[in-house]
Amino acid sequence: MEWWSILLFLIGGLLLFLAIGLPIAFSFLLINFIGAYIFMGGTNGLSMATQQIFTSLTSFALTPIPLFVFMGELMLHSGMAKRTLDVFDKLIGKLPGRLSLIVISGGALFSTLSGSTIANTAMLGQIMVPEMRDRGYKNPMILGPIVGVGGLAMLIPPSALAVVYASLAQISVGKVLIAGAIPGVILAVLYSLYVFGRARLNPSLAPAYEVAQHSLSEKLAEFTKYVLPLGFIFFLVLGFIFLGIATPTEAASTGAIGSIILAGCYKKFNLTILQKSLKGTLQVSVMAFMIIAASKTYSSILAYTGATMELVNLVGSIETSRLVVLIGMMLILMILGTFMEQVSMMMITIPMYMPIIQGLGYDPIWFAILMLLNLEMAMSTPPFGILLFVMKGSAPPDTKMGEICLAAVPFLVCDLIVLIILIAFPSIVLFLPSLM
Fold first, then answer.
1. In the chain, what are the domain boundaries?
2. Using CA atoms, how far apart are residues 98 and 207, in angstroms rounded to an integer?
3. Residue 375 to residue 221: CA distance in whole angstroms
4. CB-based burial of residue 204 (10 Å sphere; 0-12 exposed, 13-18 middle, 19+ buried)?
5. 3 state SS of 121
6. Which of 19, 108, 316, 426 is surrounded by the fewest CB atoms within 10 Å?
7. Where are the alpha helices (DSSP H) in 227-363?
8. pLDDT in tens, 298-342
9. Separation CA 153–CA 386 (nearest Å)
10. Rounded to whole angstroms, how far apart are CA atoms 330 and 87?
């Protein structure tokens, strides 16, 4: 059976199961078992698929996820996240699309504390969606900004996947982490400009409302009291990794402890908050792990049959300019991102991509950020972007998946614009690492 027909069979089967309303994790699992039985030797294939489900969750790279999620949950239930958003609410004033701008600025800040795109998106959805709907905001200005800025945790340090990428590619973890800072800020600014411009052109999407006035001294006092201390948690996570004091898992642990200490200093930590935070952590982590396990098994079947390798080799064999090859590699990642989980994409493509990148003479740190940005886009790319499903879980029950996908498209365009800018001007990525 040709590799392209295997790919079409597996993708088509997955689409069919999703179309009949089966949840994404169970759709993956079902097509996994069918594909394993057909392409991997019957019952032996089923046994291998079952074993892969368990082994996929024993990766050390996944260990920080529940700790990062716990940090986000604690910020949510202790009220620290809401209070931080309130500070941005006072700072932003009467700008068009102000609640969407608060989402973007708050999401960018939370990305420096969580490192988890799933936790970032879920937290913003729980806090901001009810108020935005009450204020008359329409779905493009509610769902889109949350999905868009939720993915910033992929780039803005500390990013768990950046550490995973650096480990797989055998390049400097510190340089990859710090290299994502400027592109992440550029993305946040571009998101804000889009929201501001669209709100100005179509005010009905983000209706204006009366905003209380606050003095400059009050704004500075609130910022100093509730935003600056978050830098303590930022240092416990990124600082410890950057200085080589701790591994990502250890740094995530110190970050979680720091979050507890900070909540205690604000007198916002008790047994009830701890129970809610742990319950939320369990729910989000189980959802994430189920999707990761099912998606990794799916990826393994594709790799076993040779379909993914043939797809990657198709670009690697093209004899043309190195820029065309680079664009082809980016396009493959975009295609893979429509049906594959990010860690699996990295594990499959990095062994093939790194020799090509080195042979073409490209800087591996620069390429790492291009790939991470591409992986961020994959997380909100229809039909299987994981952040779309996280947003669906946080949105009101009457929200349709199609509405979430449409709202995410303009922010994917912003991602694509930044990707093109970074390809054209590598110094944007390499400036900070060159100072290390």
1. 3-435
2. 10
3. 38
4. exposed
5. helix
6. 19
7. 230-234, 240-242, 248-265, 271-305, 307-316, 322-336, 342-360
8. 777 777 777 767 766 765 676 778 888 888 888 888 887 776 667
9. 14
10. 39
